[in-house]
Amino acid sequence: MGNLRLLNGLMDIQALENWLWDAACAIRGPVDAPKFKDYILPLVFLKRLSDVFDDELARLTEEFGSERLVFNLLEQERESGHVRMVRFYIPENARWESIRRQTTGLGQYLTDAVRAVARENPRLSGVIDMVDFNATAAGQRIISDEHLKSLIDVLSRHRLGLEDVEPDMLGRAYEYLLRKFAEGQGQSAGEFYTPREVAILMARLLEPEPGMRVYDPACGSGGLLIKCHLRLLEKYGTRTGEKSSAPTLPSQIAPLRVFGQEINPATFAIARMNAVIHDIEADIRLGDTMRQPAFRDAVGRLETFDLVTANPMWNQKFGQELYENDPFERFCYGAPPSSSADWGWLQHMLASLNERGRMAVVLDTGAVSRGSGNQGSNRERDIRKAFVEADLIEAVILLPENLFYNTTAPGVIIVVNRQKRHPGEILLINASQQFAKGRPKNYLTEEHIETIAQIYHTWGNPAGAKDLSPIHAVITREEAARNDYNLSPSRYVSTNDKQEVLPPEEAMVLLREAEEERAQADAELRRVLALLGLEDYDAQG
């Protein structure tokens, strides 16, 4: 193994990123940059499984005094169909040392190896065996054995065992590969990944407790669910050894029960890999949440959860038929416009909350302001009004610009609580200046996360904040009504004199909404003209 830069005995971030960069360079050429992760991550995952298996064999050999005895006991468990001595049984041909020794037919060998792992471990079926390393396009191998051999050599530099890397290593690897190689790929990167520090902030806002059921209906690579699990570990976990790479929950502390749905098969597989690496019993399902929600009870109603955490695709487009013909009765506060499903997603999540449930959802800033100040009705404003009147919105947090991979626009976190701590009030936090400059993206520091979380949990009275300019305001429902249900924190809390500029994405949504409203008005005018016998009248004038 090469020399590693270590942090508390573990590989540090710089070492991880340098390693992944070298791995990407090994397959540069035959594989497009955004596809690097599709080949690198499954092999990183396989190496993690193999190294952990080796660690467990070493521990068991020490415990039983004989490696042969350990293998005999493992074989007995395999034959019974219930392997308990190790997390996952890795067959010999899939162990990393066997892969390193392979010199010919590597593409087929790797494909056979990951399929063998999936056969031995049904939990990994559809997770580790998604990639065909021997695949062809136009009669040519997509990635040659020579390139695969170079990739294997790079990945062999570092051990990924229990004492070598943090369990969150795969999430960090995924983040790096997206940030480095998916920039400029439009929606692709941000669709599947919420920046790490935003996910940590959301977990801090929700503060999951033992045994809670946590749900993400658009879970991507599973990062938001993982951060809730890690927050629980941070609060209740204990370390069982000097070099233990992660805390574990004491037996009397119930783990979170984690549920997620993802529409993209490759990202779904990564979410399940993430759960496996973190030893989370997660129920992640593949499918279209808005059209076919996966979590339903025995009579077909939506299951409900204690917490919901999500970052759905912003301003997604769905036809009105989805809202008008919904068998799950999710959209009781109104159908959002076809141009933006933001409030459709919020209503799905609300329907998925139990009677004491809470949720934190990231959306674009327009979700809390579009339609306010318009003459007449506006679908999003009217749904927002209904949420406020039902006293569901607890807080809105405006995030800084340029945090997210697929846009420079800021986002907002909307916190919904069925049992609000301060009925009739809404906490608005303008965190637009709470960031550190980064390249190419800005980021939240631990101090920024702590500041925002403290303001939320103390309802605007954090310790030591007396000398600081407030970045929050508490408004009543009446004040929200006077402002036509505009809940943008920047309307109530000014942090500088800079004039707000409408992001291009937001302008396009507003334009599409206006076009949709005009089309509805034209259709209604034609209907009235037809009743008057004036069908031939030119409604356009």
Q: Which helices and strands occur, and which strands form pairs?
A:
Layout: E1 6-7, E2 10-11, H1 13-26, H2 36-64, H3 67-80, H4 96-101, H5 106-120, E3 136-137, E4 140-141, H6 145-155, H7 169-181, H8 187-192, H9 196-206, E5 213-216, H10 223-236, E6 257-262, H11 265-277, E7 282-286, E8 305-310, H12 320-324, H13 342-351, E9 353-364, H14 379-389, E10 393-398, E11 411-417, E12 425-430, H15 446-457, E13 472-476, H16 477-482, H17 489-492, H18 504-531
Parallel strand pairs: 5-6, 5-8, 6-7, 8-9, 10-12
Antiparallel strand pairs: 1-2, 3-4, 9-11, 10-11, 12-13
Helix pairs in contact: 1-6, 1-7, 2-3, 2-7, 2-11, 9-10, 9-15
Number of contiguous helices: 18
Number of strands: 13
**Biggest sheet: strand arrangement:** 7-6-5-8-9-11-10-12-13
* Model regions low in confidence, pLDDT < 50 over at least 5 residues: 1-7, 184-190
Mean pLDDT comes to: 88
Distance between the termini: 78 Å
Q: What share of residues are in beta strands?
A: 5-15%
Structural class of the secondary elements? Answer: alpha/beta
